[in-house]
Amino acid sequence: MSQTLSAPDRALHEEQGPAVSVVIPLYNEQAIIDRNLETLAAFFNDIVGAGEWLFILVDNGSTDQTPSKVRAAVERWPLSRCIDLPEPNYGAALRAGLNAATTRWVYLLDIEQWDLPFMAWAWLNRDSYDLFLASKRSDPTLNFQTAYRRFLSTCLNGLLQALLGFSGTDTHGPKLIDRRSMGALIGLCTLDRGHFDTEMVLRAIRSQKRIVEIPVVYRENRPHRNWMIKKIVWNLLALRRLVNVMESVPYEGLIRYRRLTREDVLGEIEMVEPSLTKTESV
Q: What's the CA gap between 71 and 258, in Å, rounded?
């Protein structure tokens, strides 16, 4: 289990260590973890630089060979770290990874779904925003979910807009976070599972953090693991908790939330890394 460093140790590590951490929650991912980590490692070597990044791999109580593959990955990329959690909990995994990070910038990624153009553009513009959000809903021409899944996502986002004044289209996609700006805010988040990152985004909006939302390509690469009825009921209960929590979080001023198009992103990174404009997503 990784340990959280003290504030002075964190500051020293930020000056001397790698530039960015890549937090990836994992649960029974033995079929895809090896090849996807290799792809991500090659990307970060090109964009950030070899030795300037590390994986923080958070295993959520996997019952297959994922834990042994995580240990092999840490040996393969020695700067990286692993965290073991006793049971599946996506929000707890994100929280543990963020708490373990000592770098200024942190990517939050899923092992089976990410978008290289978004990741590259976010890194190029890392000093311009505090929070970069990838949205599967921002551009419907890039969203290849089933109609049923799109409907459920639209309903959840509509509730966030109606009940909590959410300005965007998606809170659950990949992210790049400036931990120096967002660290204290992240420490205030209390929800777990699928609403940890939603609470983080809502708090960032109300705290006048500089936020940008980018449309990404989204494809469903495997069957969903949970029954939708169970997930819908859980989301409604968690949403009630979220509404209660956010009642005590005031707006500190005008929101600073910007949305770009896919064309904006591809046009900029094509000047720097043309090959990435031909790469959609995994």
A: 39
112's tokens: 């089976």
Question: How far is it, in rounded angstroms, from Cα 280 to Cα 75?
Answer: 29
Structure tokens at 152: 């459920």
pLDDT digits (tens, 9 = 90+) for 98-139: 999 999 999 999 999 889 999 999 999 999 999 999 999 999
pLDDT in tens, 147-157: 988 998 999 99
Spatial strand order in the sheet of 175-178 = 81-85, 53-60, 20-26, 105-108, 175-178, 131-135, 211-215, 257-259
**For the chain, how far is it from start to end, CA to CA, in angstroms?**
29
- Homologous superfamily of 7-272: Spore Coat Polysaccharide Biosynthesis Protein SpsA; Chain A (3.90.550.10)
Alpha carbon distances (Å) from 62 to 27, 36, 114, 235, 275: 5, 17, 21, 23, 35
Domain boundaries, the chain: 7-272
Pair 55, 77: CB distance under 8 Å:
yes
Q: Taking phi first (over 0 means left), then psi (-120 to 50 degrees means alpha), and beta for anything else, what does residue 18 get? A: beta
C-alpha 272/C-alpha 268 separation (Å) is 7
